[in-house]
Amino acid sequence: MSTTTTTPTPRTxxxxxxxxxxxxxxxxxxxxxxxxxxxxxxxxxxxxxxxxPVFMLALFSTIFGADGDIAGAQGMPExxxxxxxxxxxxxxxxLLSGFQNLAVDIAMERSDGTLKRLGGTPLSPVxxxxxxxxxxxxxxxxxxxILIGIAAVVFDxxxxxxxxxxxxxxxxxxxxxxxxxxxxxAVSAIPRSGRSATAVVIPIALVLQFTSGVYLFxxxxxxxLQNAASAFPLVWMARGMRAVFLxxxxxxxxxxxxxxxxxxxxxxxxxxxxxxxxxxxTFRWIRRDA
Length: 290
Hints:
Elements: H1 10-14, H2 16-41, H3 43-64, H4 81-111, H5 114-119, H6 125-153, H7 163-187, H8 194-211, H9 223-229, H10 233-245, H11 261-282
Helix pairs in contact: 2-6, 3-4, 3-6, 4-6, 4-7, 4-8, 4-10, 6-7, 7-10, 7-11, 10-11
């Protein structure tokens, strides 16, 4: 009697790779559904990252737009306060939904043991990232839709009419939100506890908003501050949004006197890659110094 030994063919050895990829994506999408449900059950998170930009747009529009259109900057066309502030609030929404929300949320999950428990399940870090980023994309899209809708319906802000403008909005939105989310995942490793997460993350977000053209018009900032702020992604998100929602004449107030959307794309892509590398290098289910 002879026995034959069969060796796995390359097809047999590697046939599990597509299934494994499907499993990673599937677990990520399952986690995304859970994350979205949890997000809308958290009242404080819902206000400070979801409704806060809407509230600030309404506040600034009411305070500065009570007498109608405000004078255009440096001889530019007059427009309502709501139209001037809308791009900055959209950019702030990307930062709050992606960076601030995830940095605080993940730090708290690490502190209360949630990540430790997840680390003992089949959920991989990649699936966890997919879940978090999908949640941010879903909630960020709804937030932007509400913000734009309120600006148009309540404050009569004229919206773009060209497909090119909405195409610009789409890629600035997606790149900015994913970059913010990945940076938030990376920064979540800094707080030593969930209790200290807000004290670490919120000041960073506030400083970026005040120096990046959200609450203060970017063209009013001194040159040195504009240059310093341009090292961070929020400036480029806000510039991309201004290119969509402000008249073309306002491009003359930007550094270089043009929107320079190619540089917006390069900067956001660079920060997306930086965030991806940093988040993968720093993410741990459990702190090393725990």
